[in-house]
Amino acid sequence: xxxxxxxxxIYLEHLTPPGHPERPxxxxxxxxxxxxxxxxxxxxxxxxxxDEATILYAHPEEFVxxxxxxxxxxxxxxxxxxxxxxxxxxxxxxxxIGAANAAVDDVFSGAADNVFVASRPPGxxxxxxxxxGFCLFNNAAIAARYAQRRHGAxxxxxxxxxxxxxxxxxxxxxxxxxxxxCSTHQMPLxxxxxxxxxxxxxNIVNAPLAPRTGxxxxxxxxxxxVLPAIDNFRPDLVIISAGFDAHHRDPLAxxxxxxxxxxxxTGQLMGRATQFSNNRVVSLLEGGYDLQGLAxxxxxxxxxxxxx
Length: 308
Ligand SMILES: [Zn+2]
Description:
Helix content: 25-40%
Number of helices: 8
Bound molecules: zinc ion
CATH superfamily: Histone deacetylase domain
Strand content: 15-25%
Order of helices and strands: EHEHEEHEHEHEEHEHEH
């Protein structure tokens, strides 16, 4: 497999208040683990700045302008209880979108079989008109629509294994059966959405996990709900909202996965991508707040992407 990695130093300049879990050190930990010799063959690319017009694929213009106006000239300002922006946040967010869209270009042009994007801020909590949960714009949703509009993809599957429900992605695709959204997440937990009976236009598959469960319930949810939905949907592209906060070390949740579970889930999705989408997998970093748990999990995930 040819695997590309996108990142950019600007991601370190999106600042959050002291003690905030979604912090620049997360990406430093990811970069450090990917320096290992095992990743020598990764095709490392500096992320491009995104095209602002593509934000409108998932968010209305008034909202985009509201986020733009919220960016301070100095310091850090809050846009909601746990989401904040600093002077470079606009450029970081636009570069996160740029990397996600470039990754879609790569898997459709054949420049790469699959791509991992190590970016901040994350995206899956950003609803059509609400920045929340550390997220400004919904990177995965924009990339899914980008694949449809620029590359003719008819059906895109977004699989979200972040421990929090991707309320934003669900909101954006709620009535859009051309995108399948599948999520495993702890429930109850922030943001409170993601019950099994939230099914949208039949294109939303939520697999909530009880607190203090682990590998067995996660894999069972994947095998019994996520993978059958993908088999039924036959996607042209698989996008992973790859959060690693279901790792047992993570301080924000109580699901006890290990890096082996992320390796396994990656392999399962790659199998589907081989079957339906010419191997095309685009994986976007979402959460993951214990630096060691995050680094080990990203390492296992990317190793699997490279191996096939
Ligand atoms: Zn999360």
